[in-house]
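Entry for the shared binder. Reason: the reviewer on the internal report wants the predicted structure included alongside the sequence.
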Amino acid sequence: MVRGYFDKFPNTIFYFRRIRRYYILYTLDWQPDDPEVTKEDRDQMQVLINEALGREKEYRKRKSRSI
């Protein structure tokens, strides 16, 4: 499991789990001081984490993509 921190949510910790060859947002410790996490935020975080971990190609080729 990988922990992620994002500027838009400075008080929230995001946990990503590896599925096959890429990472998805699994759970988070959301704090009320931070804004609500939207689907667009979640998608952007998953792209950023996979880019940072060298898994962007696998993430973009996943079967569940909605593009």
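Summary line for the report: The chain has two helices and three strands.
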